[in-house]
TrEMBL record:
Similarity annotation: In the C-terminal section; belongs to the YbiA family.
Keywords: Chloroplast, Glycosidase, Hydrolase, Multifunctional enzyme, NADP, Oxidoreductase, Plastid, Transit peptide
Record's protein name: Riboflavin biosynthesis protein PYRR, chloroplastic
EC number per UniProt: 1.1.1.193
Matching SUPFAM superfamilies: Cytidine deaminase-like, Dihydrofolate reductase-like, YbiA-like
One of the GO BP terms on file: FAD metabolic process
Associated pathway: Cofactor biosynthesis; riboflavin biosynthesis; 5-amino-6-(D-ribitylamino)uracil from GTP: step 3/4
Lineage of source species: Eukaryota, Viridiplantae, Streptophyta, Embryophyta, Tracheophyta
Main location: plastid
Comp. bias regions, Basic and acidic residues: 587-596
Length: 596
């Protein structure tokens, strides 16, 4: 089922008597909410985009806010703080239903306590365990809640709804298809060539177009290329010339016929993953591993399996910058959702010059794939054409959330299995993640209490605690001041790679204890988190990271799952079970050694 951004599948009606005027105002403020929701793109890892605009009864914008990153202050909290006393009787416009999933419902509470009387929501949250929860909570507090396409249906609100869908298209696609949102980008000449017959391709597009590509990379969790691109172009795949979010670089190569010298093997600033066929060039795999490059083997290397793996890693948005062979395979696999084609006003000719998409098996023009909601933009001398290969997923009629289903049928429980997986903060048990937005207050070596924005901030900074070097001390403070858990993690991991001499010498033997202390503080000071943890009694907790074999469970259960084990140990302690024979417990010696 899909939703074309160009038109609704059902007739448009208008419920209000003065619908045209009121809906036009609602649409205007909602488009603004969607616009500001996109402001963090390129600065943090892709995440759901939330924007909030507070409007007084007189029609004046009193406050705005947007989510900078997962784990930072909600957009709604920022907007009502900016509006202050002007929130009384005001209307709040949210491009998407709040995604509070930690039990504290900060966004909902902020709107209620500020005196907001009406909330207009662009779209319901696409994740089933969150869908409808905030809307019901707001209505239970007697706020008027209107949802575009449900309570407000008119021509005036159609474009506003389109804006809300576009700004969160990656999340919508990911929720519907269970693979990350994928964009295929290429630059070609006017006669459809991505390189000369010799393979030379620098530069087809203009500098302005290349700057736009930097922006596209910054909006992505990862950038994918094939082996041919590595051999021919030796790319760096950086997001921009300094600063901001840096996407993972991923190389797909079946045979690992790759050069030993390549820019992508330098992981000083950003990591690289090489995905390959199981058993391919084991000696080269060892070489890559020695350089710090992560190698992931697949039984059969194909785009669909790779994308399902990246979905499991929690990725939201992927940019493909590959050649024609791999792009054709990705399109045929159905994993490409959108296309960005930069067309340069150049003609190079050549019957052997490569084209952006290889063989798709089509023999008639009627078989051609047509883009949906096509946009055109001139960038310098080039023309950028973009559009969707598949409609943005239509999540209506709304699938009942687990909470709603349980009311209908009490025998239905969220988890039939006794294994509970958690990973990303938007998961049902996302509060178990180190990246959840729960500040902790811990004493330092001098006995002074400091506040850390998240467990991840605390953990990353403590790699450098106690090192007698001003640079290490500065690193600790920089990490503690990081705007988001993701930024704290990036800073800690990057400094560990670039300046290993600053890492405390016994870090490997104390890191479990550092994590344990931070988790114990977190689940001790937040009653709703403690309740959530105790509610899992009898279940095995597994951090579902497919690549972290120390803290996570791995792809096939081969990981040590120390994060899950620490949480189970804390659960046991909170329940008053002091048994040391429990399989979930970790002994003091294990915490000292950092090993099983």
């Amino acid at each position: 089922m899909g939703f074309s951004l160009g038109a609704f599948a059902t007739p448009i009606t208008c419920k209000a008597v003065n619908g045209n005027n009121s809906h036009a105002l609602d649409a205007s403020y909602m488009r603004r909410a969607a616009e500001i929701a996109d402001k963090s793109a390129g600065f943090t890892s892709p995440h759901p985009n939330f924007g909030c605009v507070v409007v007084t009864p007189a029609g004046k914008v009193a406050g705005e806010g947007y989510l900078y990153a997962q784990g930072t202050t909600p957009a709604e909290v920022q907007a009502v703080e900016a509006a202050g006393d002007r929130c009384k009787g005001a209307t709040a416009y949210l491009n998407m239903e709040p995604g509070d999933c930690y039990g504290d419902r900060a966004a909902v509470s902020a709107l209620v306590q500020a005196g907001i009387t009406r909330v207009v929501v662009g779209i319901r949250h696409p994740l089933q365990h969150l869908r409808g929860n905030a809307i019901r909570a707001l209505r239970s507090e007697e706020l008027q809640v209107d949802v575009l396409g449900e309570d407000l249906q008119s021509k005036a609100t159609e474009e506003a709804l389109k804006s809300c869908l576009l700004v969160n298209a990656p999340l919508l696609y990911r929720a519907a298809s269970r693979v990350p949102f994928s964009v295929l980008k290429y630059a070609m000449t006017l006669d459809g060539k991505i390189a000369a017959s010799s393979g030379h391709a620098s530069w087809i597009s203009s500098k302005q177009s290349r700057n736009r590509v930097f922006e596209l990379r910054g909006r992505s969790d990862a950038v994918i290329v094939g082996g041919n691109t590595v051999r021919r172009d030796n790319p760096r795949l950086t997001a921009r010339h300094g600063g901001g979010h840096l996407p993972m670089r991923i190389v797909l190569s079946q045979t690992l016929n790759l050069p030993e010298v390549a820019n992508l093997w330098d992981i000083t600033d950003v990591p690289t993953i090489v995905a390959t066929q199981r058993g391919a060039r084991k000696s080269f795999q060892k070489f890559l591993a020695s350089r710090g490059v992560e190698v992931v083997e697949f039984d059969i290397l194909n785009p669909k399996d790779v994308m399902e793996y990246l979905y499991d890693r929690g990725y939201l948005s992927i940019l493909w910058e590959c050649g024609g062979t791999l792009s054709a395979s990705a399109i045929s696999s159905g994993v490409i959702h959108k296309v960005y084609a930069f067309v340069a006003p150049k003609i190079i000719g050549g019957k052997d010059a490569p084209s952006p998409v290889g063989e798709l098996g089509m023999v008639e023009m009627t078989q051609a794939l047509e883009l949906i909601d096509v946009c055109y933009e001139q960038i310098g001398p080039d023309m950028l054409m973009s559009g969707f290969l598949h409609p943005v997923p239509d999540l209506t009629p709304v699938i009942p959330s687990m909470e709603e289903t349980s009311v209908i049928d009490p025998t239905v429980t969220p988890y039939e299995s006794n294994i509970i997986f958690f990973y990303k903060t938007w998961d049902p048990y996302g509060a178990f993640s180190n990246f959840s937005p729960h500040a902790i207050r811990m004493s330092d070596e001098g006995g002074n209490y400091l506040t850390w924005p998240s467990v991840e901030h605390y953990y990353q900074a403590h790699k450098f605690v106690g090192v007698n070097d001003p640079a290490a001390r500065n690193c600790v403070e920089d990490i503690r001041s990081a705007k988001s858990p993701e930024e704290a993690a990036r800073m800690g991991r990057t400094m560990e790679r670039q300046r290993p001499n600053l890492v405390r010498s016994h870090w490997e033997s104390v890191k479990i204890d550092v994590m344990y202390r931070a988790l114990k503080c977190k689940f001790s000071i937040y009653p709703h988190l403690n309740t959530m943890l105790l509610s899992t009694t009898g279940s095995v907790l597994v951090e579902a990271s497919p690549h972290d074999l120390f803290w996570g469970g791995g792809r096939e259960g081969e990981g040590l799952n120390y994060l899950g084990r620490l949480l189970m140990q804390l659960r046991s302690e909170f329940l008053g079970d002091s048994s040391t024979s429990n399989k979930s417990s970790i002994t003091h010696r294990e915490r000292e050694n950092g090993l099983k």
